[in-house]
Amino acid sequence: MQPLISINDFKLVDISDKDYLQDVFLQFTLIPCEYVFTNLFIWRKIYDIRWMKFRNSILIHSGLDKTLLMPLGDVYTPEELKNLLSCTFPDEPEASLIQVPEDYVKQNPSVNDFFEAELDEDFADYVYSAEKLFLLRGAKLAKKKNLVSQFARNNPGYTSVPLEESLLQECFALSEKWRESTESDPFTLGQEREAIQEAFTNFKDLDVEGVCIIVNGRIIAFSAYSFQSSDAAVVHFEKYDKDFKGAAQAINWETAKSLLGRCKFINREQDIGLPGLKKAKLSYEPDKIMVNCTLSLK
């Protein structure tokens, strides 16, 4: 049988692909954070992220992880998905299809003829109402609101300004300070460092936006986000100076404030299996946790 596609049909994500891919993503609402151009671009070298057009859909894969994202566009049968995955990684029996909606697995029992299906909670997206993160109402979010208020009292006259190109160097220095004071996998932190560099180097072309909090003339927190659709923004990075109590909660609140009225939802991405990150994301009471399936070849 003639292969549907070849690994050579894929191309490395390039800035020239932005308009086309963003137009595709705009057709969907509340999809995983992998389907936003900024993420594809800033992580492309780290994960060898490549894409191609196929029929009326797009295919995206990571050469590092040997994973193929669930195609966006046409709906494929489980057998077609199996063939697409096998053609993408012909000599990789451990290759897998990721971010497959659980509903698709339930509605297509023949998935089990070709794949082992498993819910992947480590790569679930945490989605919040922008209004909820701004208002911080209710007993469960009272501590967050109190920390924001305490930060404001301790730092009278602090300002919040849009992330701009002239501020990127100072923001990167802050991210380096945050990284050095954070106990986490050095390899993962190093990968994120490279992604931040890519985002800042290509700041103008990527349409990245964000917020900076300034205290006594210096940046003590910043966020960077981009719009995935008219309904959702994806927060890519959020860093703060740990010497300032409440700075983490303040930049979260200022980010929500900057997005209020511009989008309904804020996707704060995934916890990637890190317990501390999971606890932090859950503490903000997400409106939706988008847990999808990973399909591994039988």
For the structure shown, list the relevant keywords.
298 residues, alpha+beta, Aminopeptidase, 2 domains, 7-stranded mixed β-sheet, 13 helices, 38% helix
Q: How is this structure best described in words?
A:
This protein is an alpha+beta fold. It has two domains: 7-124, Aminopeptidase (3-Layer(aba) Sandwich); 125-269, 3-Layer(aba) Sandwich (Aminopeptidase). The chain has 13 helices and 14 strands. It has helices at 18-25, 37-42, 44-47, 78-88, 102-107, 111-114, 130-135, 142-154, 168-180, 186-201, 203-206, 247-259, 275-282, and strands at 11-12, 49-54, 57-62, 67-69, 96-100, 115-119, 125-129, 159-162, 209-215, 218-227, 232-240, 265-267, 288-290, 293-297. The strands form two sheets. The chain has a seven-stranded mixed beta sheet. A hairpin with a 4-residue loop joins strand 3 and strand 4. The protein is globular. The model has no long low-confidence stretch (mean pLDDT 95).
Quick structural gist:
The chain is of the alpha+beta class. It is 38% helix and 24% strand. A seven-stranded mixed beta sheet has the order 1-2-3-4-5-14-6.
Topology overview:
Blueprint: E1 11-12, H1 18-25, H2 37-42, H3 44-47, E2 49-54, E3 57-62, E4 67-69, H4 78-88, E5 96-100, H5 102-107, H6 111-114, E6 115-119, E7 125-129, H7 130-135, H8 142-154, E8 159-162, H9 168-180, H10 186-201, H11 203-206, E9 209-215, E10 218-227, E11 232-240, H12 247-259, E12 265-267, H13 275-282, E13 288-290, E14 293-297
Parallel strand pairs: 4-5, 11-12
Antiparallel strand pairs: 1-2, 2-3, 3-4, 5-14, 6-14, 7-12, 7-13, 8-9, 9-10, 10-11
